[in-house]
Amino acid sequence: MSLSDFDLKNYIRSGRLTINPLYEDTIQQNGIDLHIGPEIALPKGRNTLDLARDETREFFRVHEVGSRGFEIPPFTSVLLHTEEYIKLPTDLVAVCGLRSTFARLGFISPTTYVDAGFEGQLTIETFWAKSHPIKVYRGIRFLHVIFVKCLNSVEKPYSGIYQEQRGVRLPKTLIREVEAIKRTKKIDVSEL
Description:
Blueprint: H1 5-13, E1 18-20, E2 32-43, E3 60-64, E4 70-72, E5 76-87, E6 92-98, H2 100-105, E7 107-108, E8 112-114, E9 119-128, E10 134-136, E11 141-149, H3 175-181
Antiparallel strand pairs: 1-5, 2-3, 2-5, 2-11, 4-10, 5-9, 6-8, 6-11, 7-9
C-alpha cells in the first residue's frame, strides 16, 4: 500500500518520517518531490572499470552545482543527490523515479529503492540522453518518491555503507563482494 498526501503529512507530523528541509512543493498527491543538491558527479572517462580490482571512486569526479548551474555534456551519466535529508521508519520503503518533466526533457534513470530504516541524502544515477548539453541547477525538483508501507516493521533496518550519507556518495567498491561470491553459502528454506 502506498501512502497518500494525507498519510505522508501524518507520518511527517508525528516524526515517523523525516524530510529536511521540507518545502511547500515537496508533498504531492501520492509521494514527495525532492530537489537537486549542491554536488554532481561525472565519470572521468577512463578505461574499463573492473569490479574485481578497481576502486570505483577513481572513475568519478565530483563537481559543485554553483549558482550558475552545471552543464551536463550530451549522452552523459551523472550522479545527482537530493538537497533533502530523509529518515525512513522501519515500516516504510521508498521507490524513487524521475519526475515526468525530467523524463520528458530527455533524462533516463533506473528505479531506485530505499530500504526501511535508511537515513541520509539520496544519490541518484541519471543519464542525459540527448545530443546537446543541458544545464541543471541546485534546487530544481527532479525526483519523485513514493512510500510503500510494509505489512510489518522490518527485522533488520538498513545499516549499510550509505547510511547517513550527505552529498553525492560514489558507488562502493565491489572488490570484496566479488571475492565473497566464492565463499557464499546457500541456505535451506528451513534455516529462515
